[in-house]
From TrEMBL:
Lineage: Bacteria, Bacillati, Actinomycetota, Actinomycetes, Propionibacteriales
Alphabetized UniProt keyword annotations: Hydrolase, Metal-binding, Nucleotide metabolism, Zinc
Domain of life: Bacteria
Cited InterPro entries: A_deaminase, A_deaminase_dom, Ado/ade_deaminase, Metal_Hydrolase
Family of this protein: Belongs to the metallo-dependent hydrolases superfamily. Adenosine and AMP deaminases family. Adenosine deaminase subfamily.
Pfam families, sorted: A_deaminase
Biological function: Catalyzes the hydrolytic deamination of adenosine and 2-deoxyadenosine.
GO biological process: adenosine catabolic process; hypoxanthine salvage; inosine biosynthetic process; nucleotide metabolic process; purine ribonucleoside monophosphate biosynthetic process
GO cellular component, one term: cytosol
KW Protein transport (keyword) present: no
Designated name of the protein: Adenosine deaminase
Cofactor note: Binds 1 zinc ion per subunit.
Matches recorded under HAMAP family: A_deaminase
Ranges for domain Adenosine deaminase: 11-351
Length: 359
C-alpha cells in the first residue's frame, strides 16, 4: 500500500493539464470581482464545489459553462500572469517536477490582447511561478487550437515562433465528433516541416477513427487521452490475468511505436469516457505496457491533483511506488523538452528519489 503523503512527495511528471481548467477558486472570485464578472457562487469553497458538480452533472452545457467563467477572468495580462504563476506553484507544491500546461491563446483576446501578448503573459507567469515555487519545477507551454475554429495554422505558427521562449509544442482540442483532426492537416504538415512537436486530443469520447487519423494522417507525437484505443483490444474480462488478449493493428502500432497516451482518469469519469476508476482502460493498458502517462486534465473541474489521480489508481489497481515511478519516467521520456534536459530530470531528480525510497 502506498501512503498518500508518499505520493505528494514523489516526483511526478504532468503532460496534460489545461491552464483554464486549473485556477484556484479564490483567484476566480478575486479576478471576477475586479472585472465585475458575475459568478454562480460568492464563497471560494462553494465556488470550488460548484465547478466540480457542474463538471460532474453529465450535461455538456453545464460542463462548458465552467470554462466560460475561468476564461472570462483571464483576459488581461496581469490576470493571466497570476493564474500561470499560481498554476506552477500549485503543481510544485504537489510534487510535480516537470509540467506541460496547455491553453488556447485565441480564447484570451476579448479585451484586446494579441496572441503574442497572451503567450508572453503566460511565459512571465510561469517564470514567476518557477522562481517562487516551494519545490523545484520546470514548466513549459503547449499552445492549443480549437478544433471547431479555423485558426489552427496561425496557432501552429505561433508555437513555432515561441519555440525558444517556453513553448514546447502544439495541441488541438474541443469536441471530436464532427471535427476530425484532418480538418487541420495544413497546420500539422507545417509543424512537421518545422521539426516541431504536437499532441492531439483524440479518442476521448470519439472512437478509433479519431485516434487513427491523429496518428496516421496528422502525425501526432502523442495522444491526448487516447482512452478509446481499448476498442481495438480484444480481451476476456471475466478470465482475469489468464485471459487471452489480442491487439488490433492500430493498438499494436500505438504500443510498438511507444506512442504516449496522456490519460486523465477522473476527467474521463466526468465526460463519460469511462464509468469508474476500477474499470478504466488505464488498468489494462498499463498491464500491456503501453506508454501510459497519468494526468490531471482540469484540476479545478475535477477537484483533483496529480497525487490524487495516482492515489485513485493505486487504490483501484494496487499500484506500488515502483508503478508510480514507471508513470513518471514514461511521462518524462514523452515530454517535448529537449532530450538532454529530459534525461537530466530523469537522472538527477526522478531516479534518485525513487531509488532512495525503494531501496
Ligand atoms: Zn484535455
Amino acid at each position: 500500500m502506498i501512503r498518500h503523503e508518499q505520493l505528494t512527495a514523489a516526483p511526478k511528471v504532468l503532460l496534460h493539464d489545461h491552464l483554464d481548467g486549473g485556477l484556484r477558486p479564490g483567484t476566480v472570485l478575486e479576478l471576477a470581482g475586479e472585472l465585475g464578472h458575475r459568478l454562480p457562487r460568492t464563497d471560494a469553497d462553494e465556488l470550488g464545489e460548484w465547478f466540480v458538480e457542474s463538471a460532474d452533472s453529465g450535461s455538456l452545457e453545464r460542463y462548458l459553462e465552467t470554462f466560460d467563467h475561468t476564461v472570462a477572468v483571464m483576459q488581461n495580462a496581469e490576470a493571466i500572469r497570476r493564474v500561470a504563476s499560481e498554476c506552477v506553484q500549485d503543481l510544485a507544491a504537489d510534487g510535480v517536477v516537470y509540467a506541460e500546461i496547455r491553453y488556447a491563446p485565441e480564447q484570451h483576446l476579448t479585451a484586446g490582447l494579441t496572441l503574442e501578448q497572451v503567450v508572453d503573459a503566460v511565459r512571465e507567469g510561469f517564470e514567476h511561478g518557477m522562481a517562487h515555487a516551494e519545490r523545484p519545477i520546470v514548466a513549459r507551454q503547449l499552445l492549443t487550437a480549437m478544433r471547431h475554429k479555423a485558426r489552427s495554422m496561425e496557432i501552429a505558427e505561433l508555437a513555432v515562433a515561441y519555440r525558444d521562449s517556453g513553448v514546447v509544442g502544439f495541441d488541438i482540442a474541443g469536441a471530436e465528433a464532427g471535427y476530425p483532426p484532418t480538418r487541420h492537416l495544413d497546420a500539422f504538415e507545417y509543424l512537421q516541416r518545422e521539426n516541431a512537436h504536437f499532441t492531439i486530443h483524440a479518442g476521448e469520447a470519439f472512437g478509433l477513427p479519431s485516434i487513427w487519423q491523429a496518428i496516421q494522417w496528422c502525425g501526432a507525437d502523442r495522444l491526448g487521452h487516447g482512452v478509446r484505443i481499448i476498442d481495438d483490444i480484444r480481451y476476456d474480462e471475466s478470465a482475469g490475468d489468464d485471459g487471452k488478449v489480442e491487439l488490433g493493428r492500430l493498438a499494436a502500432y500505438v504500443r510498438d511505436q511507444r506512442i504516449p497516451l496522456e490519460m486523465c482518469p477522473s476527467s474521463n469519469l466526468q465526460t463519460g469516457a469511462a464509468d469508474s476508476i476500477a474499470r478504466h482502460p488505464i488498468g489494462l493498458l498499463t498491464k500491456l505496457r503501453f506508454r501510459v502517462t497519468v494526468n490531471t486534465d482540469n484540476r479545478l473541474m475535477s477537484g483533483t491533483s496529480m497525487s490524487r489521480e495516482l492515489a485513485l489508481l493505486a487504490d483501484a489497481f494496487d499500484y506500488t511506488l515502483a508503478d508510480v515511478r514507471w508513470f513518471a519516467i514514461n511521462a518524462m521520456k514523452s515530454a517535448f523538452l529537449p532530450f538532454d534536459e529530459r534525461l537530466a530530470i530523469i537522472d538527477t531528480v526522478i531516479k534518485p528519489w525513487y531509488a532512495e525510497q525503494l531501496g
